C-alpha cells in the first residue's frame, strides 16, 4: 500500500476544494435533472396532475417498447443517423484531404466552410424552408429556368427525408472537415516520404498509410457526430414537424411532443431514458477510442 | 451640500417608486391582434400607472413556455391568452382563476359577446374563466377579380351551364377549384403541415361535407362516410388543384401563394383578410374577399370556429393588476379601437358598430362567418387529439394510408382519449 504523506493529503484536499464549486454546479444542472427524470420514468406523472402517487414500475418502459409510433421514430432516427453521418464522413474526408494539400488560401477556405456551422439550427431550418419553397423558392425557380419540373422538397415523404438529410449535411459537414483536418495535419511526414521513394501511388498512400493512421481520429469523429445526429430536433421542428405523414418524425421530436403536448412526463422520461442508454453506450465506445488515440 | 443631498434623496425616492410600479406580464402570440394591443397599451399605462410587458413569441412556443409557469405556485405571467384548444386542459389542471366574482363586482357585461365565443373561450361548465379576446374562425378567401372576369364567366358558362359567382354550396366551390386550375394557376392552396395547420383546415372540409367530429356521447363520428369523402376532397384539392409542396405548407407559406396571385382560393383564419389588402406583402390588393366556408346547402356553413381568451392564471403574481388590464382591454372603447386598427372582434356591439363597418365593409361577412361556424371538440386532451389527427391526415395526404384507414385510426385514438377524460361511458 502506498504511503500517503501529510502533504499529499493536503494537496488532495486542496484539489477537492478547488473543484467543489464546479462539481456542485454540475450536480445541480446535470446530475439532478437526470436522476429526477429517471425517477419520474417509473411513475404515471402528468403535468395536468403532477404528483408521485401512481407508481408505474416499468410500465412506462413497456408502453414505449410497445408503441408503434415510438418504434417507428426510432427506426427513422437510425436511418437518418446512418445517412447523415455516412455522407458527411465521405464528403468531409474528401474536403479535409483536399484542404490538407492546399498550399495557399487555406484560411479562406476554412472560413467559408465554417460559416454554416456558425449558424443557429433554427435559422438554418427557416432559411432552407424559404429557399426550398416549391413555388416561391429560388431553387425551384432556378431548376425551372433550365426546364426542370418543380421538385416537391418537403411535401413528399421520401423526398422530405432526403431534404432534411441534405440540409443537415450542409449545416454540419464542416464539423467533420475540421476534426479530420486536425487529424491529418498531425500525421508524421516520414511514412509518406518513404512510400514516395518506394513509388507508391497516391491511392496506395491513402489506403495503406493515411487511413490506418487516421483510424482513431475517424472513430472519434464518427461517434461524436452520431451522438449529435441522434439528438437532431431543431431542423425537424422548423422544417417538417415530423411530416409529411411520419416520414421525418425523429425520436427527439417525438419525445418532446410526448412531454410538452401530451404533458405525459412519465412516459416521456422513460423514452428519454431509453435514448440516454443508447447514447451512453456510444459515449462509452467513444471514451475507449479516445484513450486509444492517447495511447 | 444640503441641496445635493436633497436631490439625491428625492432621486432615491423616485427610484423606489419606480421599483414599486406594478408590471403586468403577458405571454402572447405574434399575430396582428397582438400588434394592435401593443399600439393601444400607452393609454392603459397612462390611465393606471401599471406597466404592461408583452412577451411575444411564435405560436409553436407558447404552450411549452406557458406550462412550466402554470404548474408552479408563483409563475411569471400575470395574465395569459388561452387558445381554444388548451381550454379543456387548463380547466382540468386548475390553472385558471374563476372570474365571476370580479365580473360581478365591477359590473362587467359579458352578454355582449357572441354566444359561441363565450362557449369556446369564456365559460367552462358554468364558470367564467376567460374573456374572449379575438376570433380566428376560418373562412374561404377567394379572388373576386377572377369571378368578375368576363372571359372566365363565358368559359364557366360553356363548361358547366351555370353562372360564375361567389360559391353558395361546397360542390359549387369544388367545381370552381377545378375550373380555376389552369394556365399555371391553381384553384386552391392548402396548409398541409402537421399537426395544427392540416387538422384545422380539414375540419372545414368535414363540416362543409355535413360531417361532425363527435356525437352527443362523445364518440368519434368523423370517420363517417361524410368524413371520408371530406378527406378525399382534401387530398384531391391538395394534390390535383394546388401547388406542389402544399402538403408541407404552414399557413404563412400557403398565404404567400394566395397573396402572390397564384391561387383562386384558400381556406384559412379570418385575420388574413386584412393582409390581402396590405400592399407591402400582397400582389392582389382589392382583389380578394372572405366568406364562410360553404356547406351542403346555401343555408349551411362549414367554417371552423377558433378563438383566444384572456385569463388570469392561478400562479399569477398580481391578479388584481391583471384584472385591471383585462377590464380595460375588453372594454367597449378599446375593443372598438382594436377593431378599427384591423383587429378581429368577439363582441356583437363591435361587429354592429357603424364606424367599424364603414372602415371595414367585410365586418358583416365576418360576423356571418362567425355565427355560422362549428366548434372543434374541446376537452382535456384536445392538444393531443390535434396531434393525432394531424398525423393521420398527413399520412392520408402522402398516400401512406387510405382516407378511411387514417380516419379510423384517428377515431380510435380519439375514443381512447375521451374515455381517459371520463367523457364516454
Description of the structure:
The complex is a heterodimer of chains A (295) and B (425). Chain A starts with 5 loop residues before the first helix and ends with a helix. Helices cover 75% and strands 0% of the residues of chain A. Chain A has 12 helices and no strands. With 295 residues, chain A is mostly helical. By secondary structure, chain B is an alpha/beta fold. Chain B contains 20 helices and 11 strands. Chain B has a 5-stranded mixed β-sheet with strand order 2-1-3-11-6, with helices on both faces. In chain B, a hairpin with a 2-residue loop joins β4 and β5 (127-128). Chain B starts with a helix and ends in a 5-residue tail after the last helix. Residues 12-19 of chain B have low confidence and may be disordered. Chain A binds chain B through residues 47-50, 69, 129, 133-136, 140, 150-157, 160, 237, 240-247, 257, 260-263, and chain B through 60, 63-64, 67, 71, 89, 92-93, 192-195, 243-249, 253, 256-257, 260, 262, 380-381, 383-384, 387, 390-391, 394-395, 397-398, 400-401.
List the defining traits of the structure above.
heterodimer; A: about 300 residues; 12 helices; B: 5-stranded mixed beta sheet; about 50% helix
**In which range does the helix fraction of chain B lie?**
40-55%
- Identify the overall geometry of chain B: globular
The number of helices of chain A is 12
Instruction: Give the termini distance of chain B in whole angstroms.
Output: 81 Å
Quick structural summary:
The complex is a heterodimer of chains A (295) and B (425). Chain A has twelve helices and no strands.
